[in-house]
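Sample intake sheet
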Amino acid sequence: MLFDNERFDEVNENIRLIQKKNGLTFGTDAYLLAAFLRTRSKERAVDLGSGTGIIPLLCMSRDKASHFYALEIQQSFADLIRRNVELNGFSDKITPLCIDVRDITAQDVGGEVGIVTANPPYMTVNSGERNSADEKYIARHEVAGSIFDFCAAAGRLLKYGGRFYCVFRPDRLADLFTALRTADLEPKRMTFVHSTALSKPSMVLVEAQKGAGASMTVTPPLCLCRVDGNGNATQTPTAECDHIYQHCAFPDRFLLSNKSK
């Protein structure tokens, strides 16, 4: 059943998704983050600011964790996550939680976990225009938690050696790294995402490890679309992008990382 302000989308052959028309809808950044996550099928996971629940749904459809807790501050979205979880048959694998990211503790999810994911708001409170819909405003601006709050939550939830996966804006990379280290999360792997090989990065994906030593691998850049012989962008995905959308996983050359010290 859909309400008047909702729409129904087929994400892929595995996932169907109910989305709010006035909320922030599923996009490339969420899919790339789910694909960036290494498979740890015996580990429990938490998704911070889960929205529709798309990241846990994508990950559990590929058995990337044993169980996901989908944390969402807005009750209407926590209810939407529950409906999407039921729609896709993951009621025993994904648990929605309506909790503020600034208040979450490991006790709320039955103890420390091995994986935390986050597609946090990219914009500070005073940057950009305010969205007329509160749902989009909260999703895009740091009104209900900054990048420091999201990283602090990951630090509280993760066990020693656990992994935090985040997608963020390249122009705020300094904020992300400062927030990570403040929370005892050491960046270990980073991938810049470009629309084409000729464009500047629009996203950055980072994997950090709790309690690890300083040592990070910057992978080759991920380019989403090809350019033609005249150097113009096309709508044709690159081979790497095709692989990611087919398998919800990055090719092996993006997975190399230094061992923690």
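Comment: The two ends are 51 Å apart (CA to CA). The mean pLDDT is 89.
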